[in-house]
Amino acid sequence: AGGGGASVSSHQASVSRSGGEETTDRLSKTSRAAAENFWAAIAKDFFWKTKHTGRFLDYNFDVTKGEIFVKCMEGATTNICYNLLDRNVHERKLGDKIAFFWSVERSDTDGQRIM
Fold first, then answer.
1. What's a Pfam family this protein contains (predicted)?
2. How far is residue 91's CA from residue 44's CA, in Å, rounded to a whole number?
3. pTM reported for the whole predicted model
4. pLDDT (average), residues 67-95
């Protein structure tokens, strides 16, 4: 079963929202090495109608140890639209801020990276 490992603070997890490639790579590695702690830190920032019951994260990817499964936050309920939009616009007063910015990377004819 999964879990355990290094801890990730809610602050560290939020850095991924505004960090660069190095931050993204570091957080990606942490999310795999310490999945339960990483996602628990992210989940702390959400509003939950009902909290999960039992383990936060449980999984088995080894067919020799039984059925393959992933269980995460079983029993928890939330409203994702409220968490991602309403809270940020109304409670955090971020309605005049850019919520999502997408930058497409491509290469020019010389193989140089262009943003």
1. ACAS_N
2. 16
3. 0.57
4. 92
